[in-house]
Write a sequence for this structure.
């Protein structure tokens, strides 16, 4: 006969924090949000500490290099998604590692024969008003010119006119070579009254653009998450199918941490993959998941996981609970796993951080997750709303939205995450939809961080660790809230209604 677990499966919506005494020295300016990312001896420090407790979901609609850069600059970490050829994922990791503050990779690029109509469309899509004209229409092709929104107007110029007729050709542009420093580039921008300075290599191929508007950018990010060489940190998702080939290339590309990405991490496949990874790359941190209980945590921690992700069925785009009847309220899952992490640390002296993944709808849910014992959180929907996320920004009657789709949707077809037997998806476990557009990541995250710090101050906690050990929570009602489908308008596609 099946075993019934004691206790109700509870969600974050059912809890509130009680204020604790706030000491005079406890203020939002003094609250420290740093938190361990990877396994370490109890009482010592983790080899990687996040400066803010946020990671972005291993999803096509979320963790692009642009988002990874923005998040690392704000102290968190992205895990670049893996449902594609290894070279493409490794290239994204390299993009983040090669990022130089102030030097941006051009994302709005055209060929000289492209039309002004196509250029206009591209500018709307990327939201940028400066485009590089290159021989192959990529951001690393040979630079032929620049064209900005000041060089043409849809009402004055024919949409069929080629870009070449309106661009400023490369001979008439001020350009710098690759060895230029940010302060030299900035000096040229001001001395020569330029808005944009292209940086090219010895063969005239475009490497970066430096914009006057980014001038004081670096000072805005005191909490950047960087490695010993001051390069931004980035993680990468891996799967239990091609890890023997994928992991070496990601490590070579400079990934700071890896994470096995599975909707159900309590499996022999994942344990074997973790053991392999730790044997061949002992110095590269690798996380595992997802699990929802003490047994699952212990299984992965014993297999060598450097952190464990918690959460099944709670994601906003997730329909696993409806499709397979599997999952657990995220609050119950985090509380159970956090207790297991403490017991494991007591027994082995090893602290294995845990991550609450999915189903965080309100900013205060993130604080609740930490209070309940999570060391950091992972979010998809939250980050998909920002400019830096890869989904298209689209106008609707009610304002702008961004596309957001689950890894188990027909659009993503991430069969490596959703083992349903064989290659390919037999049924969907995620939806394809939209989320409300939320602007720039740094601005949005600043508000979330302010709320989190304010919550911690009310609870009298100056660090995440203190918050975890002193928080008092109360259950607010018996009513169970549905965690999934938060503010995602489901797009009815022929596939999803079939
Ligand atoms: P969110 O922050 O609530 O949007 O949840 C994001 C999390 O949902 C991810 O980190 C994954 O763990 C999980 N996830 C991603 N895609 C799917 C899907 O298609 N079905 C179920 N869960 C998913």
């Amino acid at each position: 006969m099946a075993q019934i677990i004691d206790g109700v499966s509870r969600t974050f919506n059912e809890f509130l924090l009680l204020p604790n005494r706030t000491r005079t020295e406890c203020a939002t300016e003094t609250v420290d949000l740093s938190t361990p990312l990877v396994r370490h001896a109890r009482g010592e420090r983790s080899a990687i500490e996040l400066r803010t407790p946020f990671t972005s979901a291993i999803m096509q609609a979320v963790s692009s290099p642009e988002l990874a850069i923005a998040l690392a600059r704000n102290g968190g970490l992205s895990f670049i998604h893996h449902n594609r050829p290894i070279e493409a994922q490794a290239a994204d990791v390299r993009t983040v590692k090669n990022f130089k503050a102030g030097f941006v990779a051009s994302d709005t690029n055209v060929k000289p024969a492209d039309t002004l109509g196509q250029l206009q469309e591209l500018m709307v899509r990327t939201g940028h008003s400066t485009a590089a004209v290159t021989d192959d229409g990529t951001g690393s092709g040979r630079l032929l010119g620049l064209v900005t929104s000041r060089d043409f107007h849809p009402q004055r110029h024919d949409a069929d006119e080629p870009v070449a007729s309106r661009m400023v050709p490369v001979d008439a542009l001020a350009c710098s070579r690759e060895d230029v420093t940010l302060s030299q580039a900035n000096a040229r921008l001001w001395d020569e009254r330029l808005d944009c300075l292209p940086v090219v290599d010895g063969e005239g191929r475009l490497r970066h653009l430096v914009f006057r508007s980014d001038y004081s950018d670096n000072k805005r990010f005191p909490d950047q998450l960087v490695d010993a060489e001051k390069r931004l940190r980035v993680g990468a998702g891996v799967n239990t199918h091609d890890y023997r080939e994928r992991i070496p290339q990601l490590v070579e590309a400079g990934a700071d941490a890896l994470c096995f990405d599975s909707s159900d991490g309590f499996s022999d496949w994942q344990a074997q993959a973790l053991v392999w990874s730790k044997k061949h790359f002992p110095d590269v941190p690798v996380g595992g998941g997802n699990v929802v209980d003490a047994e699952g945590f212990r299984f992965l921690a014993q297999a060598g996981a450097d952190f464990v992700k918690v959460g099944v069925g709670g994601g906003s785009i997730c329909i696993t609970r409806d499709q397979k009847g599997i999952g657990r309220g995220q609050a119950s899952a985090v509380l159970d796993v956090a207790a297991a992490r403490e017991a494991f640390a007591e027994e082995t002296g090893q602290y294995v951080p845990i991550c609450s993944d999915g189903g965080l709808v309100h900013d205060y849910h993130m604080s609740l997750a930490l209070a309940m014992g999570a060391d950091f959180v992972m979010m998809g929907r939250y980050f998909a709303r920002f400019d830096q996320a890869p989904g298209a920004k689209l106008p609707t009657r009610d304002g702008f939205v961004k596309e957001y789709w689950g890894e188990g949707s027909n659009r993503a077809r991430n069969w490596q995450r959703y083992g349903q037997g064989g290659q390919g998806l037999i049924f969907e476990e995620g939806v394809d939809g939209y989320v409300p557009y939320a602007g720039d990541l740094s601005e949005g995250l600043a508000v979330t961080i302010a709320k989190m710090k304010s919550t911690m101050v009310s609870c009298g906690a100056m660090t995440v660790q203190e918050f975890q050990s002193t928080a008092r929570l109360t259950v607010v009602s018996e009513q169970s809230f549905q965690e999934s489908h938060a503010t995602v308008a489901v797009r009815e596609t022929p596939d999803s209604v079939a």
